[in-house]
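Sample pair:
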Amino acid sequence: MINAEGLKVKIFADGADIDGMRAMAAKPYIKGFTTNPTLMRKAGIIDYEGFAREVLREISDRPVSFEVFADDFAEMEAQARMMAGWGKNVYVKIPVTNTKGLSAAGLVRRLSRAGVQLNVTALMTLEQVYDINDALWPDTPANISVFAGRIADTGRELLNIFQADQIGCHIITVTSDVLGKLKLVGKDLTAYSLETVEMFYRDAASAGFAIRTERAQV
């Protein structure tokens, strides 16, 4: 069996615990890092920029993604440009839509053409992938984050239950965390993507995250 170091896929560590991120940075098979407002709120982070800069002092040799937390596209753009200046290895996470369900493709197009490295997040449909891919500038590095785990939660992750039913099993034992996902079976992926964006925005607001951008100073 192939070991972690032999994988072709790049593994990025997702989290908001500085000690955990430092520990992951010591592992050669970890090729990058991501975080989001929800993880940061759960970790008790209050100073968004202070946390980000601490992470970047610890990790300077691999990409690190930090997410904007505004809902207005103009303010998202101001935050993105500010975050991009924090370090050469910064990728700015832009949600695929705002909480009103409006596509961020126009913003992605402007930022990508301006040379801002992006990680467009919370994508769940092929249409979203095509729209964002078309908006990206080929000369600017970028990632498209398809939330495959959440897509799987709407039915694919639970496939064993339905397969067991179809082949006539009398009993199947299922852990509580998987059972909790049964309510997601068949869920509309566009709606689920929007709910994910709303979660990030809500958690950022609850945590009181703020960045003083040039736009905010005007």
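The first helix runs from residue 18 to 25.
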